[in-house]
Amino acid sequence: MPSGRLPVVNPWRFETSQATVQLKVGPYYTKVWTRAIDAWNAKKVFRFKVVASSAQITIVPAQSNEATLIKQNLVGVAEVRHDSTRRIVSVQLHLGNSQLNKNGYTTSQRVNVAEHELGHAMGLAHNPSKHSVMYKSTRYVSIQPVDVKNVKELYSIPAKQYFIDSPAAAANTISKDRVTASSR
Ligand SMILES: [Zn+2]
């Protein structure tokens, strides 16, 4: 990348500033994620629409990868699949219950981590500033004006300008971006 300030958005996003979300977690984490979704929706820069069946964003419990989460002390993970046209194809998010418990995260702090992971789902990258929900090991900070501004700017670019719809780009492979929030 060119020198200068670090990018705070990734080079991918959804087609428009909205996406469907399916919650596949139990009652407690449904409450946590719903609070995070409501907090983002209240900013009116992106619309997360909760649906009952297959969605663009799926929120799953940490189960199969629990050992990895514990080993790496991860409290949240976002897997964003995107294609070479810069479109997000699908997103899977989860919170690491064991590590959140072990590190004594309150419910509000878990909501902050969920807001961080939803930030990745929209296309935000990490922000080097601690005064951003996208700080890499966010815990105490919720959505800040800078975060709202970054989402707004990302989705203010017309789709025609933003996406690469050349025939070369159409023949793409889907790559996976794995990002984490840590308690450290
Ligand atoms: Zn992150």
Features:
single chain; 184 residues; alpha/beta; Collagenase (Catalytic Domain); 6-stranded mixed sheet; 7 helices; 6 strands; 21% strand; binds zinc ion
Order of helices and strands: EHEEHEEHHHHHE
Work out the helicity level: 25-40%
Shape category? globular
> Largest sheet, order of strands side by side?
2-1-3-5-4-6
Attached small molecules:
zinc ion
Total count of helical runs of at least 4 residues: 7
The CATH architecture comes to 3-Layer(aba) Sandwich
Q: What is the name of the CATH class?
A: Alpha Beta
Distance between the termini: 27 Å
Model description:
One of its GO terms (biological process) is proteolysis. This protein has 184 residues and is of the alpha/beta class. The chain has a single domain (19-159, 178-182), classed as Collagenase (Catalytic Domain). It is built from seven helices and six strands. It has helices at residues 27-42, 66-72, 97-102, 107-122, 145-156, 159-162, 167-170; strands spanning 18-23, 47-50, 57-59, 74-82, 88-95, 175-182. The protein has a six-stranded mixed β-sheet, sandwiched between helices. β4 and β5 (88-95) form a beta hairpin. α1 (27-42) packs across α4. The longest helix is centred in the first third of the chain and has 16 residues, at 27-42. The structure holds zinc ion.
Could you outline the blueprint of secondary structure elements for this entry?
Blueprint: E1 18-23, H1 27-42, E2 47-50, E3 57-59, H2 66-72, E4 74-82, E5 88-95, H3 97-102, H4 107-122, H5 145-156, H6 159-162, H7 167-170, E6 175-182
Parallel strand pairs: 1-2, 1-3, 3-5
Antiparallel strand pairs: 4-5, 4-6
